[in-house]
Amino acid sequence: xxxxxxxxxxxxxxxxxxxxxxxxxxxxxxxxxxxxxxxxxxxxxxxxxxxxxxxxxxxxxxxxxxxxxxxxxxxxxxxxxxxxxxxxxxxxxxxxxxxxxxxxxxxxxxxxxxxxxxxxxxxxxxxxxxxxxxxxxxxxxxxxxxxxxxxxxxxxxxxxxxxxxxxxxxxxxxxxxxxxxxxxxxxxxxxxxxxxxxxxxxxxxxxxxxxxxxxxxxxxxxxxxxxxxxxxxxxxxxxxxxxxxxxxxxxxxxxxxxxxxxxxxxxxxxxxxxxxxxxxxxxxxxxxxxxxxxxxxxxxxxxxxxxxxxxxxxxxxxxxxxxxxxxxxxxxxxxxxxxxxxxxxxxxxxxxxxxxxxxxxxxxxxxxxxxxxxxxxxxxxxxxxxxxxxxxxxxxxxxxxxxxxxxxxxxxxxxxxxxxxxxxxxxxxxxxxxxxxxxxxxxxxxxxxxxxxxxxxxxxxxxxxxxxxxxxxxxxxxxxxxxxx
Length: 485
Ligand SMILES: Cc1ncc(COP(=O)(O)O)c(C=O)c1O
Fold this sequence. Notes:
dopa decarboxylase, N-terminal domain, 4-stranded antiparallel beta sheet, binds pyridoxal-5'-phosphate, lyase
């Protein structure tokens, strides 16, 4: 493919994406395919001779698009938002177009320096403590990771090795391997699965502490640390969540941070979703205690209009990260050490794209005010949904925070399970389940940039219709319609 063909192909694809977006309001959230359908439509071997781009693009229409789950449809309410916007798509395109590897300064000076600047812009916009910013004086700094999973893993590795090193320095003769077995990390029973995974990769025991109203309290943490220390365990990190995946609950950051400070334990905050809301000053009280943290991750690829992948991670002292996972090679050595930041040593892979371009485009196109409007609109839409649920006495709202509401049909879980199955089988709407204690609930997240209040009203009307017509058979003896409970 030469440059002139690339121009044609690229323009056709941009038109294609624009058409897709125009079609989204009328699309069902879920595709009508069975497992294996897509794979069967594809040849089993790669073509020997190259094909024309028009042939390839046709197959996007005929094979791929019918198999897409439409995360950007206003009928999609599963998980959390998957950040997306036109400036961000174009930023991605440019990053791919430049094809640079910005793992050290020389790999792309613009890549490193734009990222440093974007992390400062974003850190300031979110009201994070000054010590997190990239600056000449302090050891703090921010980096763009691919995902919250990577951010948590890197923080955990840094905390693990900081703890090991300080213990070994204090207690001469202690073997690293013996100590490692005794390390323990803490999080809550509501924390995202990626935290357990990070602990598995880092070979650190993780305790998922009991929550009250889905929040981790300082007293629970304190009791556990006390017991563990008495039994010879060595606490190395507490990973709190601001905005849990299940209900968007926020752990008591100030209580937890205080304990971490007293006990000299690394304090990390996973704010993958809710962290973006800190761009609105009225939500900053959720973040009380952040000034005690050692690291924090926020994912603009969730709730700040930036396409996956873009997780912003800040460290109070990035030198612990480098001590833990940093490596040196002659072929990686360049002027960057003089500049101060070799980003490959702040992350798990070596290679890295310039992810900061899409973040830059979003921050400049929307401005802080535009992003604030977007976040506030999502919160207002979720509130509207909550009000609609409260109009029907068969239902109860089980949690509501920011852009996420969870609800259920009162009484038996099996009713709500059946309702969710009925909705998903129909395919127009998509919701994901959760369990709050013993209650099975449906999570309703406001996900897309194009969701309007009439979409919320339609979604609620559809829930009522599904419920009215749903036949239920709880114990095999009764078949009826849920008109009242
Ligand atoms: C609170 C929280 N933390 C972490 C994650 C993992 O995010 P990622 O896919 O970026 O690793 C999620 C995903 O939904 C989340 O909700």
